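seq as requested:
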Amino acid sequence: MRILALCGIAGPIIFAILVTVAGSLYDGYSHASQAISELGGVDAERPLLQNINFFLVGTMFMALAVGLHRVMGGGSRPALGPALVFIFGLSAGIGNGVFPCDSGCEGGWFNGFMHSLTGIIGFVAAIASIFVFSRRLKGDPDWGALYPVSRVFSFAALVTFVLWIGVAKIAEVDDLNGVLQRLYIGVWFMWTEIMAFKLNSVLRQPSRREQAWTTA
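struct tokens:
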């Protein structure tokens, strides 16, 4: 069970490292203006690295979702929060790896369209998961201390996502596309790191590990 929590801790870190490496291997790539997905797109010099990165982070987020469900959402409790985290991993992670973006990630052909669609589904699911978990955290004896933090992150994720779409996509301020995308993803990753570390801490308690293993 603790391996699932460690996947949640390691996932964002590995993703950030591989994005940095892939960017350094892509001649002329700009982290400020270009989307992360362009590192695995048709114009990339070594797209396999970033597409593997999508698969890795997707798998790790799905593992984290299972761990959160077994500890927080099992039994009679609704599984919506963990399910949304799982959807992010499946859609924005593995889905983005299966469907590499087209030139400039414009969504102009099938793979590009599917890449954009799976990405948006994953990003919206990520924001929704923070709001759903925030309601669950309140009053929970093990997780309640994270309620105020989670509320802040829920609104921060929503604001940064709207800012990214509004400025970079609708207003077409291309020079800020990479910066604003990374700002949103950074907020999401920080929240998942907090949740994964807390999950790992809770699972250090023998009674909670046994309970998690027996939870359907």
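DSSP finds seven helices and no strands in the chain.
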